[in-house]
Amino acid sequence: QVQLVESGGGLVQAGGSLRLSCAAPGRTFSSYTMGWFRQAPGKEREFVAAISWSGGRQYYSDSVKGRFTISRDNAKNTVYLQTNSLKPEDTAVYYCAASARTVISGRPYEFDYWGQGTQVTVSS
User: Is the separation of the CB atoms in 71 and 96 below 8 Å?
Assistant: First the structure.
């Protein structure tokens, strides 16, 4: 079992930045592909970014590419999502997720464990 705890969400003006963190206590953290998803009211959960167990590969959705950066620190059992140039359409609950797969395509079913989510609200 992998417990995931997100933090760092909040209210920010358009153009601003937030750094989301996801802590995953446990010795097996470094063996998981980690991802971030988001879900806005009335919409389906959407893939945002993912990072391989070593950190050597990152994946991004087209909607955030160039603005968001995913990274991880396996020594701290933490994955980060740096969000820059935020837009009102980025407003959503952001979820951290862990996958035992080494190859993912960004679909929610590929991820085995989920956090409770952190709210990001971008005002115009």
Answer: no
